[in-house]
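User: Hi! I have a protein structure encoded as tokens and I'd like to know what sequence might fold into it. I'm fairly new to this, so please keep things simple.
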């Protein structure tokens, strides 16, 4: 069918994100919404790999969403912009990046599984983003006898603000509206009680409505709905709807609430931007003010091209609109203003008003979290970014073909811009290209994307642990380099001493040479020699750090004194001194914060002990969640993510960041030295 995209005023727009744990049915609910609104003629199926939002090959092969997808539909004169997001905990970066674009979050819960880890995490993330929240209990026809327990679990986890808007009936094959109706037969609970509770929780957010209610006066429906919107936006009410998206049960109730009760860009919480002075500015949704918009997501595809997803904050935009980006003064013309319906990109027929979500294509200056504005209207404004988890798993990567090296860098740059929890860098110590992600599922999806989008084949391996060497004592070194080959010779003699520095102080070099024993212009050559020695160490061939080297004497020759001679003498003298200064191996230590339901804490701490970790504290978080703070050697954490998922039933997550370097215990040191010697020997054989 032909997709048309019309313009809507801010008060008639509803921006909604679907959140929830994997398998809750978000994509199927999105299909049901599109079908009930007439945007598609028949519902697709995740199993049949033909849903509107899961159009990428990675999503279809895995049978779950691997990227956030934009959709739109119209219902009773309202435009509903819908963002379907991944539910896998490791793909959370693409989910969180959608929150600044919307006013309402629908948290989808699988009736068969109840509250899962990502359910709690995303419920609280939506609240921190200032979004109105709703809960949809999906798949009610698959477990009709357990729905009362699911509701009890929701109230226990999220508090008394959770209230039913409808109740299941006919063994979960239908629902009954409790907002407008005061009686009826439900599978559990009382329609009358739910109606009264909903009414009381709603009027508490509106003083005028509360006075009328306490006085026994009748409340008209428009007044009740205004109070309901206010309560939702304030977070005082979190409505729960029962539904079965696959059979479209309860979807009409949801659409009614979205159209009539969910906040618009005007009635919802004002969008927030950070000003140049670090304060936060609230941006009212006013279509008559100068253009101000936020690019919240960018995708790049060799076939579909570059696409920037834009939330219009104020003003309006059409194809002829010119704007600038951040503080740049270069004017850019919008060109074609598009709407997004999964893979399709229909052009907007007219102007996009404040509050709408659109896309602009093939504009290289637009990047994630940039601000578009009319000249001089927003130079000092910046996006307020969600708190993204830090990537915690790394892989060393290289192209299978040397001819693809440049192409690989471009592709990784595009993927890292699309996903804020994926990045890459070249490690100067190990000379490896390192990609970083949340976990092995996340990195696996990114590797598939490299193959599917960019036709790139790569080889991966665990990254080389960047061990370092140091010394624990003081020592002196000396070397005379003398070379005579019949013509001009080489001569340079160096005396130096070496001493340890505190952890993290790096490297220091100094000269105490007096009387010209080593001419001043040869001192830099000595330092280069010292650096050569420190690059390879003496324990296992790792770089040396936290060392001070002082050259204090030497000799030269009027004819044969050469820069290369002093560099060689400095290198060999340094190696001699390091060998006598009780050298030791250092390992990288990382800080960890592990989060999991409290019943798994025993297994988590036991595994940490196996990793030679030091636990600094365990904090209790809302909803029965605990957080462990610890430090551990990076070399012991190779499969920590997989072990954590196994020991916590898939509910555990962790973040990791570099902390320091510390001495390797002697038993482990000997093993690392032996492994390193074996690798260097194999590499030498391969090179030969």
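Assistant: Happy to help. Inverse folding works backwards from shape to sequence: for each of the 688 positions I chose a residue that suits the local structure. Here it is:
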């Amino acid at each position: 069918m032909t997709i048309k995209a019309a313009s809507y005023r801010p008060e008639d727009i509803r921006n909604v994100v679907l959140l929830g744990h994997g398998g809750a049915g978000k994509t199927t609910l999105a299909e049901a919404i599109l079908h009930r609104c007439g945007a598609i003629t028949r519902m697709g199926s995740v199993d049949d790999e033909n849903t509107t939002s899961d159009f990428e090959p990675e999503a279809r092969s895995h049978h779950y969403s691997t990227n956030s997808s934009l959709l739109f539909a119209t219902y009773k004169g309202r435009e509903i912009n819908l963002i379907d997001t991944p539910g896998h905990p490791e793909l959370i970066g693409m989910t969180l990046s959608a929150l600044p674009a919307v006013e309402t979050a629908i948290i989808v819960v699988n009736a068969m599984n109840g509250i899962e880890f990502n359910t709690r995490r995303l419920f609280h993330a939506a609240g921190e983003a200032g979004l109105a929240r709703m809960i949809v209990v999906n798949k009610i026809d698959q477990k009709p006898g357990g729905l009362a327990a699911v509701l009890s679990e929701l109230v226990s986890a999220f508090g008394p603000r959770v209230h039913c808007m409808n109740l299941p009936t006919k063994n979960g094959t239908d629902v009954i509206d409790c907002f407008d109706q005061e009686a009826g037969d439900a599978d559990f609970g009382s329609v009358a009680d739910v109606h009264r509770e909903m009414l009381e929780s709603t009027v508490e957010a509106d003083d005028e409505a509360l006075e009328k209610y306490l006085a026994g006066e009748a409340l008209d429906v428009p007044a009740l709905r205004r109070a309901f919107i206010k309560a939702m936006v304030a977070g005082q009410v979190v409505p729960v709807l029962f539904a079965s998206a696959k059979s479209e049960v309860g979807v009409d109730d949801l659409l009614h609430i979205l159209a009539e009760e969910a906040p618009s860009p005007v009635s919802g919480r004002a969008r927030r931007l950070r000003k140049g002075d670090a304060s936060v500015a609230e941006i009212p949704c006013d279509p008559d003010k100068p253009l101000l918009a936020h690019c919240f997501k960018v995708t790049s595809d060799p076939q579909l091209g570059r696409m920037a997803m834009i939330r219009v904050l104020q003003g309006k935009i059409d194809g002829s609109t010119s704007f600038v980006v951040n503080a740049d003064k270069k004017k850019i013309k919008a060109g074609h203003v598009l709407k997004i319906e999964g893979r399709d990109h229909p052009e907007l027929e007219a102007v996009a008003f404040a509050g709408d979500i659109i896309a602009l294509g093939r504009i290289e200056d637009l990047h994630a979290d940039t601000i578009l504005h009319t000249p001089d209207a927003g130079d000092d404004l910046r996006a307020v970014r969600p708190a993204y988890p830090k990537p915690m798993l790394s892989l060393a990567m290289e192209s299978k073909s040397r001819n693809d090296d440049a192409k690989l860098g471009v592709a990784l740059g595009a993927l890292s811009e699309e996903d804020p929890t994926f990045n890459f860098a070249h490690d100067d110590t190990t000379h490896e290209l390192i990609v970083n992600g949340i976990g092995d599922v996340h990195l696996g999806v990114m590797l598939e994307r490299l193959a599917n989008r960019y036709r790139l084949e790569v080889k991966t391996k665990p990254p080389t642990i960047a061990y370092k060497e140091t010394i624990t004592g003081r020592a002196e070194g000396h070397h005379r380099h003398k070379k005579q080959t019949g013509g001009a010779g080489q001569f340079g003699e160096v005396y130096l001493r070496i001493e340890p520095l505190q952890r993290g102080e790096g490297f220091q070099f100094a000269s105490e040479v007096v009387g010209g024993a080593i001419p001043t212009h040869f001192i830099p050559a000595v330092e280069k020699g010292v650096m050569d020695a420190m690059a390879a160490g003496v324990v296992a061939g790792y770089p040396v750090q936290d060392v001070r080297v002082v050259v204090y004497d030497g000799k030269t020759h009027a004819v044969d004194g050469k820069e290369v001679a002093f560099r060689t003498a400095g290198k060999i003298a340094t190696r001699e001194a390091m060998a006598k200064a009780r050298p030791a191996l250092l390992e990288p230590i990382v800080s960890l914060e592990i989060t999991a339901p409290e019943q798994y804490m025993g297994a988590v701490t036991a595994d940490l002990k196996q990793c030679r970790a030091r636990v600094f504290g365990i904090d209790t978080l809302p909803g029965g969640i605990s957080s462990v703070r610890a430090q551990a050697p990076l070399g012991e954490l190779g499969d920590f993510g997989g072990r954590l998922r196994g020991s916590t039933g898939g509910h555990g997550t962790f973040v990791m960041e570099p902390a320091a370097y510390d001495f390797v215990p002697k038993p482990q040191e000997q093993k690392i030295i032996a492994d390193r010697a074996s690798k260097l020997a194999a590499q030498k054989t391969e090179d030969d």
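A useful reference point when you look it over: The chain has five domains: 10-200+236-260, 282-383, 393-461, 469-581, 586-667. Feel free to ask if any position seems puzzling.
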